[in-house]
Design a protein that fits this description.
54% helix; mainly alpha
Length: 484
């Protein structure tokens, strides 16, 4: 199952930060033409990362810098060529062509220019670099974003630069670099909730629960009553994770980091990594998934401790993904009697983990996310025809498939999961055998994730899929997975 994740909450907060350039205008010489064209769009937002379950409020930075026109006497130092260059740069920037503006600025910086123009250009470079960095971040390209953020940081560190670098360092697995940026940021702005959450997330990946506990205790003192209750819950979770981590050791493969109890779970460690590696290879080759950019964290817990560590998980959850794959270990697995159930759970949560990286933690429609996870939970050679329960119940309403299933009762959640799987089978049977692979392979950090957009390769709308599938469900028509 997929929980409304900690990472999703963090990244949703970042999504509310407007592209830096949209709120910080390039300073311009005072001419009638330029002043008319120098109004920046201040509504463009970083929308790469979002959450359908929770959107923390993180307003556009308050220090919005309006265009500051230079005194008239300074303009006499600009030649007609300079004025034209400034106008060209500003028009690109103000029209939202941040990459074009940055490229033009770099070109100008290599040209022979008079001192006044060079001084003006130098004064704009941090704005241009930071804006280009956030624009690359919006497109899911943290490699290029980091490059521009670092150039901007060399001109002076700002909160916008530090926040962007922290996110991209976290995303690319540079945890200590992310930690340093976050600690600097929180010294400047201790009340940014999204950065607080990102900091705790990074500390968990580093296994530094002592620092997490100390930090939560510190901010608790200045919190209001409502915030203090939430912090107390977080402290309880952190202490439970700290206690469990004392018994754990970590093993890694190319794509996974596995934490498990020493001695007690050691018999499972190699098998879990083998199962995950095999499933990943299958998902990539047969279904169009992409290999993860950063190692996926997998944690095994004793079943009787699971609820203490993940208190918000539903009672019916056999495992969950909340930015990390968390699996409660059954005693039968330790006796190596039957690992079929473990394989099924690992495969299910792996689908969520891969989708999270492919979408940059944006929210997929639950019917698709959970349906694909259900579909791929079984080994493809073992998938059979969909079997109806004696009391299968009626088909859910369209909107029921678009809400988080974690809010449903055990009965309704079971219906939603089963019918989501049925929807995926219906897609396979409507289209050719490559339909799922085509849909999945087109999912990126920038692609539209609406139900209709996902279904576009099939020629169906979501309404049509629901109508068609409901008719089949009501007639109890058994459909199954296509063989691959």
């Amino acid at each position: 199952m997929k929980m409304p994740t900690v990472k999703k909450y963090i990244f949703a907060g970042l999504s509310c930060l407007a592209i830096y350039g949209a709120v910080t205008a390039i300073q311009a010489p005072k001419t009638d033409e330029l002043s008319q064209k120098s109004k920046l769009r201040n509504t463009e937002q970083i929308t790469t990362i979002s959450s359908a379950d929770k959107q923390p409020h993180n307003p556009v930075p308050a220090n919005v810098e309006k265009i500051k026109l230079k005194p008239e006497k300074e303009h006499r130092a600009f030649s007609a060529v300079d004025q034209k260059a400034i106008q060209s740069l500003q028009l690109k920037f103000n029209s939202g062509d941040y990459f074009g503006a940055m490229a033009l600025a770099d070109t100008y910086s290599l040209e022979e220019r008079n001192p006044a123009f060079r001084e003006w250009l130098d004064s704009q470079m941090q704005i241009l670099l930071t804006t280009a960095a956030w624009a690359h971040l919006k497109l899911g390209d943290c490699s290029k974003a980091i490059s521009f953020f670092r150039r901007a940081e060399a001109l002076g560190r700002t909160q916008e630069i530090s926040k962007g670098l922290a996110y991209c360092y976290r995303k690319t697995g540079q945890l200590y670099a992310a930690e340093e940026q976050l600690e600097w940021f929180l010294q400047q702005n201790a009340n940014d909730k999204s950065v607080q959450a990102l900091y705790l997330d990074v500390l968990e990946s580093l296994g530094d629960f002592v620092k997490s506990e100390r930090y939560l205790s510190d901010i608790q003192d200045s919190a209001n009553n409502s915030e203090r209750k939430d912090i107390l819950k977080q402290l309880t979770r952190v202490k439970s994770k700290q206690l469990e981590s004392d018994y754990q050791q970590t093993q890694t493969s190319q794509y996974f980091t596995l934490s498990y109890r020493r001695i007690e779970h050691e018999i499972l460690s190699e098998q879990v990594l083998d199962l995950l590696d095999a499933a990943l290879q299958e998902f990539v080759v047969d279904f169009g998934f992409r290999e993860p950019n950063v190692q996926i964290e997998v944690l095994l817990y004793p079943a009787d401790k699971f609820k203490n560590i993940v208190p918000d998980s539903p009672d019916w959850a056999e495992g969950l993904f909340d930015g990390r794959m968390r699996i409660p270990v059954k005693n039968s697995w330790l006796q190596n009697k039957n690992l079929t159930a473990l394989d099924r759970i690992l495969r299910h949560e792996l689908v969520h983990a891969l989708f999270a990286q492919m979408t940059d933690f944006r929210q997929l429609p639950p019917w698709f996310d959970e349906g694909i996870a259900q579909r791929l939970s079984c080994n493809t050679s073992q998938c059979t025809t969909f079997s109806f329960a004696p009391k299968a119940g009626s088909f859910l309403q369209k909107n029921d498939f678009l809400k988080s299933y974690t809010s449903y009762s055990t009965v309704k959640a079971g219906q939603a999961y089963r019918q989501s799987l049925y929807l995926i089978y219906a897609i396979e049977n409507h289209s050719n055998r490559e339909s799922l692979k085509t849909i999945i392979s087109k999912i990126t950090a920038q692609s539209s994730l609406t139900s209709d957009a996902l279904l576009k390769p099939t020629g169906l709308t979501f309404y049509e899929l629901i109508h068609k599938t409901k008719t089949q469900w009501d007639k109890r028509i058994s459909i199954g997975a296509r063989s691959y």
